[in-house]
Structure formats: C-alpha cells, structure tokens
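Q: Give me a backbone?
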Amino acid sequence: MATRKQSDSVLEAERTKTKPPPLFKVLLLNDDYTPMEFVVVVLQKFFGMSREQSTRIMLKVHREGVGICGVFPRDVAATKVELVTGYAREHQHPLACVMEEI
C-alpha cells in the first residue's frame, strides 16, 4: 500500500490596503438676498461653529463669493448640503450650499 505525504504549506491571507474614503468640501455660495445673520445661524446650527468662526466664514462668502464650511466623507457632506438647502428654503432664502470633491 502506498502512502502519500502531504506538503506542509500554509495559506497566508493577502493583506489589502484600503484607501480612505474620498473627502468633500461643503461650500456656501454668495447671493444678493440671503441675510448675513441667517448665514451665521446656518453655520452655527449645521456645522457646530462658534459665533466668531461663523461670522468669519460668512464674511468670506460675502467678499469672495464662496466659503468652506467643512470637509467630510461623501455621505456626511451630502447630508449637510441637503439639510442646509432645506432649512434655507423653509425660511424662504435662496442660499446655495454645494459639495466638491477634494
């Protein structure tokens, strides 16, 4: 009777490196109708900023036409854009909030 010798091989799990999810900037765009105070409130309410920080970004939006509210993964950024846009429409302001991949 013949016997078979099994080879001593060990299977190693391949380690794959996962890339971090892409990040997106959430931006507020300037318009001629939304009050500055409303923009400050939006930044405090949806982005957790202090009054001073919110005012700084609001002035940047006012002077330069656009201001960065924060950097988030895609789902979080999309939710923030949706919440801000809905809140602005609810208060009858045309404030535009968009997201842009970094």
Notes: The helical segments are 36-47, 51-64, 74-90. The mean pLDDT is 92. DSSP finds three helices and three strands in the chain. The CA atoms of residues 42 and 96 lie 12 Å apart.
